[in-house]
Write a structure and sequence with these properties.
The complex is a heterodimer of chains A (352) and B (271). Chain A is an alpha/beta fold and 352 residues long. Chain A contains 12 helices and 15 strands. The longest helix of chain A has 29 residues. Chain A is flat. The model of chain A has no long low-confidence stretch (mean pLDDT 92). In chain B, helix 4 crosses helix 5. Classes of the chains: A alpha/beta (352), B alpha/beta (271).
Chain lengths: 352, 271
């Protein structure tokens, strides 16, 4: 081990310390939901005391408690800002987080393990918003998300249609010609299948694109690269070997931003609804389509998702606002005739 | 010539035309121009813009340099490829760049539109095979000690991999003459046309190595019937990291392009 190796290790540790610090700040922002006053002297004293007790080896208690006092000050400053929070599935650097940032650059994007965790946390009031991918031009419907959308009580308050550009990322300074294995989410790997084949790279599925980038930045595994966003490369300090490696240029994902009913504006030029089709499916579908067609309301999406065995939930997106009389009439009529017809929300859609 | 199963002239006289992003090699007269080496983003972009404005249809630039001395500038590698990709994005010119190592072939193919096999690697058979398998158009330069038959056999290696997109470039050979860097063998232009259906280009920069000879030999190549030229141009030749003495300034290149246009018009009248 030489100076260069040691410094590389230190750089890696710094990246992890900062990532942990960021996670601590996220938790701190969320505690604001559960307490009335910003300052909680009892809790602060307990934290400092715990830090003092846990300081060992080279960590001088004076140093660590001083450090923590400044961390607590920064936490309170962040809490005082009253940042909006938006949950996304995946790790920091995920495409969902990019979409969240394009929708609300000043909101705090908070990672969740599963899609259902995003919905639950918004429903419980822990997060103000959630963002989820609903469909991709290459991969089709994001099944797990649409299955939850069928029953959710949340409202769609915005949509983001985002171009997906996958990048091949490697540890800085490594020789790209020695890459043999590429880790990423199976969908990203599938979207770059021809690129991987051309360069004789073995795909290895990982649960998340950004997670793969983080894993690579920490393990620095030899001969390994990750597929993730340019944003993940910056976040995890990886070198972009090649941008836009997806086989098809037309790779876009559509995201919905969700909030509790009444928590955000329902202004917008687009609407979404869901209803159930069982038994006479053709009749159920035709009945609803006819209601919209008769009033000249354009439908921009019709998708069916398997629901209970033999049943389908049908999603429709339409053009029109809630102030539009034709839309109001159509929705009222659909509610009377279609089974379980529910409006999911009115919103504006941004293309980025 | 024996054993030229795929490169020999076809009975019906049909000639290969390679479409590279709308540029028709072997169809239109094409000038490929750019710096010997990619040295920096600024140098490459400035040169690329200048050659595009003067009428070049493709950009050249070396990211991997086969240098005589191991201590000479070896090229920027991957960083150079990224710069070339940016130059293509900004000028719209397809990019030709040399590949010197089989391990680089697929990666260079991700960035460049045409892979160049240089004179020193003309008979590097594993490199030829790998380049053939890449499916990319290949610019095969003539080895400095090679006969026409050897040259066409090397093209055959690429064609035999199922890659029909090969074009040739005469760049001078070693003779007892030392006045010029190489002896530019323009007789190869009609010779290739007689023996093969592949397009043939001429590189007067390496062919002579003398600045003042680039223009007359370019004009002579056109008169001989070359399908195109590959010319080194640098936005500031005096500061170049390689081939300082044979890179044209953008102004000299623009004057040459004008003369080429007039000569080609006259050649058209000759029929």
């Amino acid at each position: 081990m030489n100076l260069e190796d040691l410094r590389k290790d230190i750089d890696g540790l710094d990246a992890r310390i900062l990532a942990l610090l960021n996670e601590r700040m996220e938790k701190a922002i969320l505690t604001r939901r559960f307490k009335d006053a910003l300052a909680d002297p009892g809790r602060e004293a307990a934290v400092i005391e715990k830090v003092r007790r846990q300081s060992r080896c080279l960590i001088d208690p004076e140093f660590s408690t001083g450090l923590y006092r400044s961390i607590i000050e920064q936490s309170k400053a962040l809490q005082a800002k009253g940042l909006r929070t938006i949950g996304f599935q995946g790790e920091h650097g995920a495409y969902s987080e990019m979409a969240a940032r394009s929708w609300g650059p000043d909101a705090a994007a908070i990672p969740c393990r599963e899609f259902v965790d995003v919905f639950d946390a918004v429903e419980s009031g822990l997060f103000d918003f959630g963002i989820v991918p609903v469909e991709n031009t290459l991969g089709g419907l994001v099944g797990p998300v649409n299955s939850i959308l069928v029953y959710t009580g949340l409202r769609i308050v915005a949509a983001v249609d985002m171009g997906i550009s996958h990048c091949l990322l490697a540890v800085p300074g490594s020789d790209h010609r020695e890459i043999r294995t590429v880790i990423s989410h199976s969908q990203a790997l599938a979207q770059c299948r021809r690129f991987l084949a051309r360069n004789k790279l073995d795909p290895e599925p990982f649960y998340d694109t950004a997670g793969a980038a983080r894993e690579l930045s920490q393990t620095r595994a030899k001969g390994t690269a990750a597929i993730a966003s340019r944003f993940a490369a910056e976040l995890y300090d990886l070198e972009i070997i090649k941008e836009a490696i997806q086989d098809s240029e037309n790779n876009r994902t559509r995201f919905f931003v969700l909030a509790r009913d009444g928590a955000a504006s329902q202004e917008g030029s687009k609407g979404s609804a869901v209803f159930s089709a069982e038994g006479d499916k053709a009749g159920a579908l035709y009945g609803v389509l006819e209601i919209f067609a008769r009033r000249g309301i354009n439908l921009t999406r019709i998708e069916s998702v398997p629901d209970k065995p033999g049943d389908y939930a049908i999603f429709i997106d339409f053009e029109g606002s809630r102030g539009d009389a034709r839309v109001v009439e159509a929705l009222a009529e659909a509610q009377r005739t279609a089974r379980d017809f529910r409006l999911l929300g009115f919103y504006d859609e941004a293309r980025v | 010539m024996k054993n030229l199963k795929l490169s020999a002239s076809r009975p019906d006289g049909a000639r290969t035309v390679i479409d590279v992003g709308g540029v028709k090699l072997g169809g239109d007269f094409v000038v490929i121009a750019g710096p010997c080496s990619v040295e920096s983003e600024e140098q490459t972009l400035r040169t690329a813009e200048a050659v595009a404005a003067a009428g070049a249809k493709m950009l050249r630039g070396g990211a991997f340099k086969p240098r005589t001395s191991p201590y000479a500038f070896q090229g920027l590698g991957l960083k150079g490829l990224k710069i070339l990709e940016k130059a293509r994005r900004e000028t719209g010119l397809p990019v030709v760049t040399e590949v010197v190592d089989t391990r680089d072939v697929s990666w260079v193919g991700e960035y460049a539109d045409v892979l160049q096999i240089g004179a020193r690697n003309m008979q590097n058979f594993s490199l030829l095979r790998e380049a053939g398998r890449s499916g990319k158009p290949i610019l095969l330069k003539r080895g400095m000690h090679s006969t026409l038959e050897e040259w066409l056999n090397c093209a055959e290696y690429i064609l035999a991999e199922g890659n029909g997109q090969v074009f040739l470039c005469e760049r001078g050979i070693r003779t007892f003459e030392t006045y010029t860097r190489n002896t530019l063998d323009l007789s190869m232009v009609p010779a290739v046309k007689a023996e093969s259906h592949l397009p043939v280009f001429v590189d007067p920069s390496h062919g002579t190595g003398i600045l003042g000879m680039i223009e007359p030999m370019s004009l002579a190549a056109v008169a001989a019937g070359a399908d195109g030229l590959e010319i080194e141009v640098h936005c500031d030749p005096s500061s170049a990291l390689s081939d300082k003495d044979q890179q044209l300034t953008p102004a000299a290149f623009a004057l040459l392009m004008d003369k080429l246009r007039r000569l080609r018009a006259f050649m058209g009248e000759l029929g």
